[in-house]
Amino acid sequence: MQHFKTLSSYLDYLKLPRPEHPMLSVLSSKGNGYLPCPRESSPPIINDCYTISFKKYVEGNLNYGRTKYDFTNGALIFIAPRQVLQWDNSVVFEQKGFSINIHEDFLKGTALAQQIKKYGFFSYSVNEALHLSPKEEKQIESIVENIEIEYHNNQDVFSKEIIISQLDTLLKYANRFYERQFLNRKELSNTLLEQFNNHLTDYFELGELQKNGIPSIEQIANKMAVSQRYLSDTLKKETGKSTTEHLQLHLINEAKNILLKPNKSISEVAYELGFEYPPYFSRLFKKKEGISPTQYREKYNLN
Which stretch is the leader sequence (predicted)? Predict the structure, then answer.
């Protein structure tokens, strides 16, 4: 897999103009202008840059898991360094908007270098983009215009500090808008929770738990065609419980069914549920139910 370690080499590959700063590139369309068009397709690649880009979607629908979304209002996309990128020519974007590429070294020594890692949207897939309303779009474009002015000015001792400050503001607004998006997508959240529950039910009923052990959240997210972080954030916003907590609830419910069989020891129940250490299973059961597995059996007079 090709790895672009410098911003210039990455932009050369994309067939985009070379940057005016070795670690920062700002491209935008103004008026009736258009962004330069990058290459139509690419095999898997990685680079050492953060990318923030906004483009209009003009043809067809973009799949998000099993759901299709209209991107007419525009999509703000965030990509972190060393994420695997790959695309083909099946999705057509109108080349209006902006694209900011920041080499990770540009942020070194600033507070933003650590803060940017805390923004979950940098770990989302491209199809989990932030969909801006027209009002939000104007707010973001105003910030980008400030960044672009400073980018094209002659560099001085204040330039980097001003650009970093504007980037920090842009990301804070993006975080706010993502919060709005999560709250407005209750139907999607419910669909994701239903898919999550259905996947676990199928996993248990098909005997996968005994064969392969407790599934990881990453495995479940991959089956659902969403990223682990997005799944976790969405379920947490909607239900107040993390993906791990939902998984544990399924395991405890399954444990209750097995505990109704008095011929199995507590250790055998734990192993059947995929727990390598029975004491951990007992602690988790007591934490969730308030009583131990043995007490649960005694409560129903099954010993």
Answer: none
β pairing state of 24-28 and 93-103: antiparallel
98-123 residue pLDDT tens:
999 999 999 999 999 999 988 888 87
One-letter amino acid identity for 66?
R
> Are 259 and 302 contacting, i.e. CB atoms less than 8 angstroms apart?
yes
Could you tell me the pTM of the whole model? Answer: 0.63
Give me the residue spans of the domains in the chain: 2-184, 187-299
Specify burial of residue 173 (Cβ count, 10 A radius: 0-12, 13-18, 19+).
middle
**Overall fold of domain 187-299:** Arc Repressor Mutant, subunit A (1.10.10)
Q: What is the pLDDT of residues 147-185, one digit of tens each?
A: 999 999 888 889 999 999 999 999 999 999 988 876 666
* Burial classification of residue 233, based on how many CB atoms lie within 10 Å of its CB (0-12 exposed, 13-18 middle, 19 or more buried): buried
